[in-house]
Amino acid sequence: MSFLIIDAEVVTLNKISKIIAQAYNESRKALLENEAKTICSEYGIPVTKYTLAKTCKETIIAAQQIGFPVVLKIVSPDIIHKSDSGGVKLDLKNITEVEKAFADIMKNVKIYDKNAKIIGVLVQEMAKPSIEVIVGAVKDPQFGQTLMFGLGGVFVEILKDVTFRVAPIIEEDAFEMISEVKAYPLLKGYRNTPPIDINSLAKLLINTSKLIIENPEIKELDLNPVIVYEKGLKVVDARIILE
Q1: Phi then psi for 132, rounded to 5 degrees?
Q2: Which of 34, 59, 168, 214 is most enclosed, with most CB atoms within 10 A?
């Protein structure tokens, strides 16, 4: 008796290649969020639990399986900025709220863009609050794939407290990136705020580096926010733009 041994990395790359090929076949450069999160998961990047639902009934079932509270997000190749379209509903605690949120999202999106193609809604767990960070990547014309790290919210928007490395990076680079931001003391624990899981954060940076190196079609990647806890982390939103 003989056994066929399949390399897990080959399976991963084939799965990702199919997602990217489908996007190109549909003349899309922006991956849908469920596609981006699937790619992240293949690289060991922890994302929130999620299900793509196409009807209100499917949405309710998905919410029950994931567990309340949940978040609903519109999934459409024509809606890049989901919040601007009224396509996001947070902290839904029961079936009644999910039903209303589904109806509101569909109505809002049609008002925002009556011609938008709607794939469905992404039903995902409502992640518990903690320290928020951002991990990004851009394909620089001169340096190639470049990784970015910073704290989320006001730190990245106003203070521009971010750091960069040309990919690929090693573990030492990851820990250096984390320690270089001005807000690093917050990550180590400050007053009543406990320290976050620096090791999980470093692993996230390394895995993201591997993802963008092995998939050169990726022009931009944005994991924001990433919520980091005392133990572990979760990527709440993932965006990938292709060349």
Answers
A1: -105, 135
A2: 59
Burial readout 60-81 (b: 16 or more C-beta within 10 A, e: otherwise):
bebbeebeebbbbbbbbbbbee
pLDDT band at 5 (very low <50, low <70, confident <90, very high): very low
Query: How far is the C-alpha of 175 from the C-alpha of 180, rounded, in Å?
Result: 9
Q: How far apart are CA 94 and CA 198, in angstroms?
A: 34
Residues 196 and 233 in one domain: yes
Q: pTM of the entire structure? A: 0.92
| Contact assessment for residue 186 and residue 169, using Cβ atoms and an 8 Å cutoff | no
Q: How far apart are CA 129 and CA 149, in angstroms?
A: 19
Confidence tier at 1 by pLDDT (50, 70, 90): very low
Domain boundary among 125, 158, 173: 125
Tell me: do 120 and 137 sit in the same domain. Answer: no
Total domains, the chain? 2
State which residues form the domain around 174: 131-242
In three-state form (DSSP H/G/I as H, E/B as E, the rest C), the secondary structure along 17-75 is HHHHHHHHHCCCCECCHHHHHHHHHHCCCCECCEEEECCHHHHHHHHHHHCCCEEEEEE
Contacts of 107 (CB under 8 A, 6+ apart): none
Residues 48-65 have pLDDT tens digits of 999 999 999 999 999 999
Amino acid at 110: K
Q: Could you write out the three-class secondary structure of 102-155?
A: HHHHHHHHHHHCCCCCCCEEEEEECCCCCEEEEEEEEEECCCEEEEEEEECCHH
At which residue do the structure tokens 């133990």 appear?
231
